[in-house]
Amino acid sequence: MNIAKIKQELNEYETKSIFIADGLEFSQADLITKIIYYYNSKFTTGEYDDQNDKKYFFNIVRNPCDVATKAIDFDTKNINILTASGGTSLKTWYFERDLKFWMKDKKFGKVLNRIFHELPIFGSVVLKIVNGEIFFVDLKNFAVQQDADTLDKARYITETHLYSPLGFKRIAQEKNWTNWEEALGDEQEEIKVYERYGEDENLDYRRTIAAEVGKGGVILSDEKVEKHPYREFHLDKISGRWLGIGKVELLSDPQIRINELSNQQAKSSYLSTLRLWQTRDTGVRRNLLTDAINGQILQTPEEIKQIDMADRNLSFYELEINRWLTNKDEITFAHEAIRGERLPSGTPLGSARLAIGQAGAYFAQVQENVAMDIKDLLFEVVIPQFKKDNNKEHILRLAGEDLDKINNLIVDNATEQKIAEFVSKKGRYPDRLQIDLIRGAISEQVKQGKEQLVKMPADFYKDLKYKIDIVITGEQVDTNIKAATLFAAIQAVTADPTLLSDPTKKKFFYRWLEQGGINPIDFEPESAPPSMEQAVENIGGRAGGGVSKPTFAPGQESGKLETTI
To answer: Does 284 share its domain with 189?
Structure first.
């Protein structure tokens, strides 16, 4: 690959349009520039008109973008790890807690927030994965074959980097680039570096790094790679182009027309403030605002009349602007009810509910599509990097509700093990009181202290690759539905406690809770076994079936130091 080929592709991207259909041309570079200008309330043609009057930008694109961001947004708390068939619930529980602590430390929530912020603006977001780290790509410096369906099918992908001479020298030495000294000019303030991915003349997929030097350039690195390091997310797509469709693009015509009307009305307001008079007397040669004084009598043979400069098109401007604002809401589903604003007086409740329902269904579909791409990011990038960072022995700190849940799981597992040992030694199953004694003794040892430090062994999550599932649910769950589901769940459990114990009923019950936006784990019963004294009193003087005191691993005797998995 040579620098001339890279520049040819960049020139094609920046200057040529593609034909999506007859009469429909598309230039990705021009559109991205236009989106940046419009979102920041700037005109692409300058801030002043032909008469050197300032143009005012009536921004109508920001609010629909913010509405869409809020409607499709979800956070790390909505990412749940479930036990797949053949998995271990205790290990999965540890994995989820450990993963969420790691994502919080890596600020993965900020990555999600920025994805959802930029998607409605540009229609597409590109992430770059370098050694497991996630970086956002600036689309104005990202050239791709415009009519490619996906990045994997693009003939070329070129990202442009701008470096200061010192920064270029530092990264060139760090990456062991060759011939980098040739790119350093005497008075060069900025060095442009191209990073290209694509097939060469031999159909090999290569990564080429080149620096621009004058009208030519120099190749710094050229190597064969398996694929590019980018991941793409799209809000909405149409066939024939790579870039997705964002809200700013959809509102291009309404934004142009609103600006025209606003500036026409502004100019009209300037004229309406003028005070002009007319007369047929040619002898009047004075400015009444500056030359006449209050109370002066003007002697003229012809009557002096003030010219009516009132603007009689105010109703037209208001009607026309409202029409385009309504069109804006229809295009983007950003109605008053969705924006959280008070509905116009007289709006039927049924109409408001219908609008909310339609908009909710639309955004739910968009959220689902984005969630599937984020799920792939989690499986292929985030979780592998998490496993790599946590494949050594480390400590997981648990407190509060997490501590209660893990203690219950530990007590359940330890009780099952002790019961199995009892059956092996005695040849029979312990009765209810003996089980209570076992469980009470274990519980007293485990449930002590306000926090617990769990020692996670090396490669503890190695076998979880095919035993997890990720469920991403939007946080836009209706609070009324959630409250109604909680109340109905309490009634159901009260009427039929076996919903939490019968395996078949429990499966259906948990699925119903998930549909209502409630985490089923929150309904896991927290056992409260009797203490050792209570269990002994209950057994009383009954003979037979003695149970030895449970033993624990080192560090567990105090119940508050470390638990070894």
So the answer is: no
What pLDDT was estimated at residue 450? 61
What is d(CA 193, CA 220) in angstroms, rounded to the nearest whole number?
Answer: 9
pLDDT in tens, 130-146: 998 999 999 999 999 99
Which residues sit opposite 82 in a β-bridge? 469
- From 113, 123, 68, 119, select the one nearest 359 (Cα to Cα): 68
Determine whether 392 is exposed, middle or buried from the number of CB atoms within 10 Å of its CB (0-12, 13-18, 19+). Answer: exposed
Report the predicted TM-score, pTM, of the whole model to 2 decimal places.
Answer: 0.72
Residues spanned by the domain of 89: 3-55+70-248
* 480-532 confidence digits (pLDDT tens): 566 677 778 888 888 888 887 787 888 788 777 766 667 666 666 554 444 44
Residue 346 within any structural domain of the chain: no
Phi, psi of 293 (to 5 degrees): -110, 160
**Spatial separation of the C-alpha atoms in residues 62 and 255, rounded to whole Å:** 11
Q: Please provide residue 328's backbone torsions phi and psi, each rounded to the nearest 5 degrees.
A: -60, -45
Residues 400 and 288 reside in one and the same domain: no
Same domain, 152 and 102: yes
pLDDT digits (tens, 9 = 90+) for 148-178: 999 999 999 999 999 998 999 999 999 999 8
- Same domain for 109 and 156? yes
- Across 531-540, b (16+ Cβ under 10 Å) vs e yields ebeebeeebe
Same domain (yes/no): 289, 210: no
95 and 23 assigned to the same domain: yes
Domain assignment present for residue 294? The answer is: yes
In degrees rounded to 5, what are phi and psi of residue 257? -70, -40
